[in-house]
């Protein structure tokens, strides 16, 4: 049996070319950073100082998107290390970068070292500045992070998927990382704020996070259930977002999308979410196997689109085929308790549906008789016979990848 090779830890004398001999003589292990990341950090430090340590002003220049928290972090690190001078060893700074790229317990240690009890406010300030989010989004993001009541910070980072991504952002530019945590939207939205996109994106499977395509918008395509159903049917994993006439914004993630018919699709990766008046993610409980449903024009079955429901009106979220109205039950066994609309029966103001991830694969259909025997087609055409069957070829796909409408 072959032995599995484990990656060696990187042990480096960093900054030996630019820092003093006393600093460069100490070997530091930064096992969470690869050689390219260490080189990127060194290059950024060289831009602000060539001395043996970092001053508070150097900190502010290195981390401009931290705002006042750069000074907070500098003072905290100096106090924890018992420094009497006004300069912080470079190795102490890089150690925090290394910790934030590590496991949850390492990340918790770094956030505590840098910001103490103000780590949530600091993360929000960094994120909003680095991603250039509107100032109004700060409060929404902070409130979402503060909802988590985990017993300690390590557990919080482990359980809160959005926080697990955000902790990598404070030093992102120093590591020359170009990976975005915002999805690329093909289409215009009036319902998905930047923080809403962050929260939802962090909870859907990785392969669906980066590209979102607008399938239906009531602002663009009108208030038509049949139009929406046609544009959504068979398009794969998607998001449904609603603004009610009372101002609540909420929706669902359908892990396998919607397929028109009398059966349910999807699995426990599906979830509900609320976006306004506050952001919350409400995951499946596993008690119910009935997830995503789409049907219309039936005499005995429910006609509409919904998730986690039954034959009665006890749906956590359901849209009527008549369009304009829906049901949102707060006490459903299918998902965590949530009051999405603030009322059981709501009226729709705006509705959007977004496909997430790549478009569905085109199914191979049986060839037309015209394609099977082109010679026979040619002979019939020479004889002056009209080809009636050409009108019955499969239609072109409703939406192609990247289409904005």
UniProtKB/TrEMBL annotation:
Transmembrane segments: none annotated. Keywords: Cytoplasm, Lysosome, Membrane. Its main location: cytoplasm. One of its GO terms (biological process) is response to oxidative stress. Residues 190-357 form the TLDc domain. It comes from the Eukaryota. Residues 386-405 are annotated as: Disordered. GO terms for cellular component: lysosome; membrane; nucleus. Pfam families: TLD. Coiled coil: none annotated. InterPro entries: TLDc_dom. It is found in: Cytoplasm; Lysosome; Membrane. This is MTOR-associated protein MEAK7. The gene is WBGene00275442.
């Amino acid at each position: 049996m072959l032995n599995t090779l484990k990656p060696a830890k990187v042990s480096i004398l960093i900054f030996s070319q630019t820092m003093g001999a006393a600093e460069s003589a100490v070997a530091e292990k930064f096992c969470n950073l690869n050689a390219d990341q260490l080189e990127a950090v060194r290059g950024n430090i060289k831009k602000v100082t060539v001395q043996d340590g970092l001053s508070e002003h150097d900190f502010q220049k290195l981390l401009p998107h931290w705002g006042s928290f750069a000074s907070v972090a500098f003072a905290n690190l100096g106090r924890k290390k018992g420094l009497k001078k006004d300069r912080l060893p470079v190795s102490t700074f890089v150690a925090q970068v290394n910790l934030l790229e590590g496991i949850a317990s390492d990340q918790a240690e770094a956030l505590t070292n840098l910001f103490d009890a103000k780590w949530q406010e600091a993360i929000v300030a960094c994120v909003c500045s680095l991603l250039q989010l509107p100032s109004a989004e700060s409060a929404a993001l902070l409130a979402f992070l503060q909802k988590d009541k985990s017993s300690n910070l390590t557990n919080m980072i482990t359980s809160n998927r959005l926080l697990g991504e955000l902790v990598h952002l404070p030093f992102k530019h120093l590591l020359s990382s170009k990976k975005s945590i915002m999805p690329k939207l093909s289409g215009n939205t009036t319902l998905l704020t930047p923080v809403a996109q962050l929260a939802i994106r962090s909870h859907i499977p990785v392969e669906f996070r980066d590209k979102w395509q607008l399938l239906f918008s009531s602002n663009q395509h009108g208030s038509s259930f049949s139009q929406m159903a046609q544009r959504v049917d068979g398009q794969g994993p998607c998001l449904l977002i609603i603004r009610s006439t009372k101002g609540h914004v909420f929706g669902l993630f359908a892990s396998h999308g919607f397929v028109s018919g009398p059966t349910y699709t999807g699995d426990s990766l599906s979830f509900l979410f609320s976006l306004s008046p506050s952001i919350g993610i409400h995951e499946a409980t596993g008690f119910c196997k009935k997830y995503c449903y789409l049907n219309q024009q039936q005499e005995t079955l429910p006609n509409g689109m919904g998730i986690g429901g039954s034959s009665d009106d006890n749906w956590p979220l359901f849209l009527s085929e008549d369009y304009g109205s829906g049901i949102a039950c707060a006490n459903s066994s299918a998902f965590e308790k949530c009051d999405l609309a603030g009322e059981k029966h709501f009226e729709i103001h705006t509705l959007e549906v977004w496909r997430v991830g790549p478009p569905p694969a085109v199914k191979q259909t049986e060839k037309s008789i015209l394609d099977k025997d082109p010679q026979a087609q040619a002979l019939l055409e020479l004889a002056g016979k009209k080809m009636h069957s050409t009108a019955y070829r499969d239609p072109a796909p409703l939406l192609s990848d990247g289409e904005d409408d």
